[in-house]
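Re-running the complex after MR caught last week's input typo. The corrected sequence lines follow. Everything else is unchanged.
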Amino acid sequence: MQVIATIPELRAAIKQSQTAHETIGFVPTMGYLHEGHLSLIRRARQENDMVVVSIFVNPTQFAPHEDLATYPRDHERDLALLHTASADIVFLPAVEELYPSGYTTYVQVEGSISATLCGVSRPTFFRGVATIVTKLFHIVTPQRAYFGQKDAQQAAVIKKMIRDLNFDIDIVICPTVREKDGLAMSSRNTYLTPTQRAQAVGISQALFEARALIENGEHRASHIRQSIETRIAAIDDAVIDYVSIVDATTLADVETLSGETLIAAAVKVGKTRLIDNIQVQISGSI
Amino acid sequence: MQVIATIPELRAAIKQSQTAHETIGFVPTMGYLHEGHLSLIRRARQENDMVVVSIFVNPTQFAPHEDLATYPRDHERDLALLHTASADIVFLPAVEELYPSGYTTYVQVEGSISATLCGVSRPTFFRGVATIVTKLFHIVTPQRAYFGQKDAQQAAVIKKMIRDLNFDIDIVICPTVREKDGLAMSSRNTYLTPTQRAQAVGISQALFEARALIENGEHRASHIRQSIETRIAAIDDAVIDYVSIVDATTLADVETLSGETLIAAAVKVGKTRLIDNIQVQISGSI
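Corrected-run output:
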């Protein structure tokens, strides 16, 4: 496994595999890896000749009041996990390598897909995500890139960016990986106190109860949303940012569930903002 | 020479040359080709195995009040010229091919480099340029792309975008091609009446006189600018948009010329907006 810090060295390593017509699978991460990331890397390993993983806590997707400085980092542990997962190349650049002095270019997926859900409380987040993903795609030149369904809006925004900007890259979205009790894995779970951690499971439980409701025939978004909100409101120390029921591709609100529907929630537990979602496929009409 | 209208067909044609490890030179144009475009194509022909030329009047770089609808078009003549110039592939897409319904993603090179000079009267122009160039680069995947020095600010913005977004493409800027009397070639020259055409030469003459001044030791930007403005003001029917003396890379205003300096003018002659520039290299200090 090669660990590379600079763009020219990474390009040189990539060029070798391109000359050999090898396919490249790419997993961009912010590090502090958990089983969710590892599931993406295993999938990339199955589907490509070469697997490139980046670890970069991207400053342009954090607002000034957010947790850029305290975002958890543990490169030694990450590299050990990536070695075990048989990654070929780990790209671990300094901030200045990707955002040198005088940097001013940004990619923005405009419209409601970026402005809804997390975009309401994090208005510049997806601009930062689209920009860093564009940069990394240009450097790594993958055939396939892997993202988690847990970040459902990010997945939708990146898929739209790929279509709009004509990137020739397959975006592969992998299922959310959960702790045994159902909590969606997240590097930010480490912020939770033991009490908060025990209570945070209420978020996934609320979504699973919603799925049961839907499977029993409830297709009215307002009723489903109310069920989720009531369940989450029962968590001590929790403040709902949003509970939204939207079309899975456009992220437009729906009143009655139909087709591929995303049910997504963002909740602050103490100072920690957690997100989770489920996706349901409603076939036929009521 | 292949003439291709759709992205999948173009990708298929490009893939063949990539498999053969051929280099691709790309010349993006808005058509209505003149000797300036042809000089780019000849240069691309010398330096690459395959030459791709696009003809696309890009709507996102026109403001609503500008000349999108009336921009001159003559595909038959363009294709004959491209055949003579030995282009391999001409990409001639419909608007919907590049901007399908629901399109919302834009690339913006922020800061003064886009906001100064033409950016003052055309505030969304370079956002449109950066977006279409990004899309075409993703589709054509060239090693080298060719632009004219006549569009000096466009060249500076694209070079900055290439650096900021880590495109692995060499940007080649070719000299402005002029009519015998000195007028910079432009598809928009066709808008000029014979009288306006005769007078428009005053723009390039003003720039050439400025160069003579500089060669005689004048390095004060204000004096050089005044000389240019006085000469252009003598043209009937001409209204100066700007006369600017700036650093050739950052496009920041300079007071005293030093290093690589761009002297650029935009002038409305009747209803036709023309741009022209010269670049001077000042060596040593005063």
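None of the earlier attempt is carried over here. Residues 20 and 49 of chain B are 10 Å apart (CA to CA). Chain B touches chain A through 29 residues (CB under 8 Å).
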